[in-house]
Amino acid sequence: METQTPKTVKIFDITMRDGSQSKVATRIKLDDLLKIAGKLADTGIYGAETWGGATFDVCVRYLREDPWERARILKAAMPNVKSMMLIRGQNLVAYSNFPDDVVQKFVEASARNGIDVFRIFDALDDVRNHEAVIKAVKSVGKIAEGAVCYTISPVHTIAKFVNKARQLEDKGVDQICIKDMAGLIDPQTAFELVTGLKKAVNVPIHLHTHDNCGLGMMSVLKAVEAGCEMIDSVLSPFSGGTGHPCTESLVFSLERFGYSTGCDLKKLTRAAEEARAVRSSYSEFEAPYSGVDCKMLITQIPGGVMSNLSSQLRLQNALHRLNEIVDEIPKVREDLGFIPLVTPTSQIVVSQATFNVLLGRYKIIANHTANLLKGMYGETPAPVNKELQDRVLKGAKPISVRPAELIPPMWPELEKKFPGLTEEEILIHAIFPHEAAGYFEERAKKSE
Ligand code: CO
């Protein structure tokens, strides 16, 4: 089969979710997002990522903003643009698995509040963790996008990624995302991967990459040349470095190459001016350095992970051990089956590596590490360290079924526990049980 160059490239502007997350710790408030959305609405972009990932958590925990209202209002502000969310498979917008009935309710509520495209990923790339979400998305007639997490390891090959994509297509996804959350994909690999995917699957391909290592725009171009139909980018004031390739320069270049994006560069420029003003009012949340940093090409540790680790070590007066921990991370990752470093696996690997360095290698096996070794998160890309696994299993068998099979339904009990609340409110309790009380208290005070 010959690779066909698409005439049209669909642009998803992701300034409001990943842009905000990558540059100002997801802190942008709804009022300010609305200023950007208002200007983006008629630029001709096909989609906008407005929700999911850390947004739900930050709304509830820090901003005390109604996350559902955010999804609804942003959709209303951009009625002709597809609203996309990032959903962590069976973890939804949290850090561990939920039962299938809560997954179903969450997806229904998200769709009801304006989400059109669900980008579904799983940190282990175990497609069984996509299943319930895909089914729920299809049941409400929305678009299911299955993500393959791009990572570099001795077991990750083009063939392996393509095989994952094929499995996702079999599960019924409408499109495939290459999720390069760490900005590690290089132009040649992007070309080979998209070429491989175009041969193996029939659904459109969507590339999500970051610009940490300065590779973003080159990789986007090579992906498009290989037939990738959809691209994520952000308005210029949020672009580059820990952020993403820039929407305006991408539109400008693709048009010069003869592709049609349907976007109006003048209008995009106005949206960018608005975005610049918004970003400037969140300077307190800026990371100290958010430009290009090529260290990752060697360490493969995402920038966000590094900055979190540094600030945690500073708190523990252990910053001088940073380099040892950086060296320990690949070792732990190997012991845990070469899992990609993405929420929540990045946190699991980094904490275990920190314990190993500060207390001695595997003197303590953290709870989450133990659960991963037991198979509670699903199947790892390569087998885990057998010795460590035996140690935590203590004679029991590792979990081999789809992990959520083992979680009993929760919804009937939740409804009983929170009578009179809307499904949206119950979901906040279900997903963030520890933060919900404070959230609702403060919301009530605000409305008095
Ligand atoms: Co990202």
Structure, described:
This protein is an alpha/beta fold and 448 residues long. The protein has three domains: 10-285, Alpha-Beta Barrel (TIM Barrel); 301-405, Orthogonal Bundle (Cyclin A, domain 1), CATH 1.10.472.90; 411-447, no CATH class. The protein is 50% helix and 9% strand. It is built from 20 helices and eight strands. The chain has helices at 15-24, 30-40, 55-63, 67-77, 100-112, 128-139, 158-170, 187-200, 216-225, 247-256, 265-280, 296-299, 303-315, 322-335, 345-359, 367-374, 386-393, 411-417, 423-431, 433-447, and strands spanning 10-13, 47-52, 82-87, 117-120, 143-149, 175-180, 205-209, 230-233. Strand 4, helix 6 and strand 5 form a beta-alpha-beta unit. The chain is globular and about 65 Å long. The structure holds cobalt (II) ion (CO). Cobalt (II) ion binds next to loops.
